[in-house]
Amino acid sequence: MSGIRPTGFLHLGNYFGAVRNYVRMQEEYECFFMVADLHSLTTHPDTKDLKVNVHRVLSENIASGLDPDKVALYCQSHIHETSELYLYLNMLAYQGELEKTVTFKEKVRQHPNNVNAGLLTYPVLQAADIILHRASLVPVGKDQEQHLEMARNYVQRFNHRYGKVFPEPQAFNYGSELIKVPSLDGTGKMSKSENQMATLYLSDDDDLIRKKVMKAKTDSGPTENNSKKPDYIENIFLLMRLVSDEGTIKKFESEYNNCTIRYGDMKKQLAEDMVRFIAPIRQKAMDIRNNESYLKEVMEKGAEKARRSAKATMELVRQAMGLNYY
Ligand code: TRP
Hints:
Oligomer: single chain
Distance between the termini: 33 Å
CATH topology of the largest domain: Rossmann fold
Radius of gyration: 22 Å
Number of domains: 2
Structural class: mainly alpha
Bound molecules: tryptophan
Strand order of the largest sheet: 1-2-3
Order of helices and strands: EHEHHEHHHHHEHEHHHHH
């Protein structure tokens, strides 16, 4: 089970870091992937862009390979059982630990005039999302580790107090390290909010992709054979390994090692390979976005699967809590 925030555009970092994991998991597990529209209300109470954003994030994930026939792909707000479980879990969540959460403190700093109770209990809602399906594996990045630890705490408290209903959810990734996709300006990784010219989005058109790649930071090239690559050059090779074929990578590696490399040519090649990689995903996402009836069908089908699982869990929860009076 995992949740996807309906903010911003998907970029190459999301694709290789998250979505590709989901696509692989759908072949091996029963999966629930949810658009976290309710979570976005904790910081963005204005809902006028929500529909467009939800449609976009669904389209981009499907275009990247998520299959609505294989997984439950649904919107958080369509599953009302979540709110009931959230309420019960709130009684097992303590003010002190919620106030210590790193993401909460960060958001208080960013939105000092909107420190609402929903923001404080954001991790409780997230725990409800997960354990509503009694999920064990949660594919998420490092920034979500603390939320998962809190989810495990609520599970332990619930199971201890009312009887064992929930497994303890764990962060899950294939391999030990998440793939980090470097930004094009050599200063960290691709990100939704920072320098947009250094991040490749799945929605970028061909010319914009070329323009961004050609602006990537390089220098005049190595002067000694087999020298170590500076970080920003290593990053260009890293990006090339994601989208280019073996022969191309070998060619530029050996040109680097014998000091004949021309970074202009390398970036031209990388730009074309990026275009070849991104263009079909962009096109497919656009086609899906323009097909509102298909999106409606996807959401209905997803909600139906999620509801079935949620209803079964909530029966167990009410039973365990002794909320069945007849
Ligand atoms: N908090 C997550 C994020 O910021 C999104 C999310 C909401 C989530 N519910 C979840 C992730 C359930 C995993 C499981 O990215």
